[in-house]
Amino acid sequence: MELSEVSRSMLFRCPLCNADIMVNDDTSLLTCQGCQAVSIVERRHGTIALKIHTKPTNTTKSQDRKLREPLSLGKLTKELVELKQESSTIRGRKIVGAFAGGICGTLFGYMGSLDLIGKDFGSGVTMLVCAAAAFGFLRFVMRDSAASASSINGKIEEIEFQIAERQKADIQRLFRNGHLD
Known about the structure:
By secondary structure, the chain is an alpha+beta fold. Helix content is 61%, strand content 15%. It has two domains: 9-58, Rubrerythrin, domain 2; 69-176. It has helices at 58-67, 73-117, 121-176, and strands at residues 9-13, 20-24, 29-31, 38-44, 47-54. Strands 3-4-5 form a three-stranded antiparallel sheet, with no helix packed on it.
């Protein structure tokens, strides 16, 4: 009986644009289809992580922008407003999460320290563990919101570029047709 190796694959997110990326067992270097960033697949102690090797250049981004089907100026503007609102919402969540995590972590740490000073070791250690968890939550919220904000800011930049290109093309067309002097 022959044993054959089964190839496994896992779905990851691009560290730069948050697009889906499929990583196979034998993959060591890959290119994101969303932003053209080249990532290295790092494998250590049973974990797999993607690390940006090469960010896309502006010429790559502008070539990709020209290949996409253009949307109307109204749709682009509407999408831009929606993305800016989403960015604002993420910023608000980040502030609330930071405030809540910071306050809870500080209070748990303070109460745990008081309990340890008062020789109540069980309660003190429990409070300090809760403080560590609150600060861990704070760190998670900050990283997650930074990644989301980065992705949205890239999309905002893309749409602003498309709007500028559409406006430039409209002005050139008006000049060619003699409507502007």
